[in-house]
């Protein structure tokens, strides 16, 4: 028999099929069984690889996107990285309009992945021609054969999770999942995953994690947009100051809000207890789990799946940096523990 070389054809074949990992120490005194879907195992280190690949491949199938065409999006975060990665392999130009608030590290990372980056002033309103929304729209109009991903208002963002994250969790839990807990930003992850799971079993509870300073929880409760809910917060990628059409509010049973400080400490605790080096919103999701458990959401026989969206390496100058934590005043809390380094 001829020996075959065992290699995947390119990095994109590694997107999805992320592991489900049991949480042990951090959930020790909590009722129920807890499993983390660790999205950092995607090749671009976040859940956004799934939507980048899916949306681009759908555009190819429908004939919108042809070789050499352009992908445009407004993000300096995970979606930008994933789009740049997929664009390289598939031979597209990737243009990202980002806010001037974005860290130099993030901009360098996107450039490293071959993206063309437009840095737009952060202080202007969304309808100002210099805002990253308007710049992206203009570039889209100027580039014949370009696709504007527009993840907050793109149903394909939801579908990507309906066709991948949902079935994976159903299969990995052998249908025994009782609760899904996921961060909500665009809402694509929670809405698409929940749609698949609820079709299989409508009794599965779907809980979204939201940030203090975001409108999502209040909108879910009242169906009204309350400007008073909005104020600045530190966690990136969680919550929103607008209502994304990619969020299916009807499928979500409940939103739980978490603070910047408690989420940061939970992210650090996940590394120390489970060896899981995951991002700030994973800490937020973990904090949400703790609060929900204290409120009696889970029973002894609950099988709770929590989604951890990205990798810790993206937060080295923030949550995993003691100076940053101290500057935020996060070391005032009782849970704080600064680990000293020994210099020899
Ligand atoms: N965590 C991080 C780090 C993210 O970048 C995002 C995306 N904004 C989310 C969570 C939320 O995922 P979704 O947009 O699918 O709701």
TrEMBL record:
Cofactor: pyridoxal 5'-phosphate
Gene Ontology biological process terms from the UniProt entry: cysteine metabolic process; serine family amino acid metabolic process; sulfur compound biosynthetic process
Family annotation (InterPro entries): Cys_Synth/Cystath_Beta-Synth, TrpB-like_PALP, TrpB-like_PALP_sf
Keyword Chaperone set for record: no
Domain called Tryptophan synthase beta chain-like PALP: residue spans: 12-310
Coiled-coil ranges per UniProt: none
Record key words, sorted: Pyridoxal phosphate
Protein origin, superkingdom: Bacteria
Gene3D superfamilies per UniProt: 3.40.50.1100
Family matches, as PANTHER family: CYSTATHIONINE BETA-SYNTHASE (PTHR10314)
Family: Belongs to the cysteine synthase/cystathionine beta-synthase family.
Protein name: Cysteine synthase family protein
Taxonomic source organism: Aequorivita ciconiae
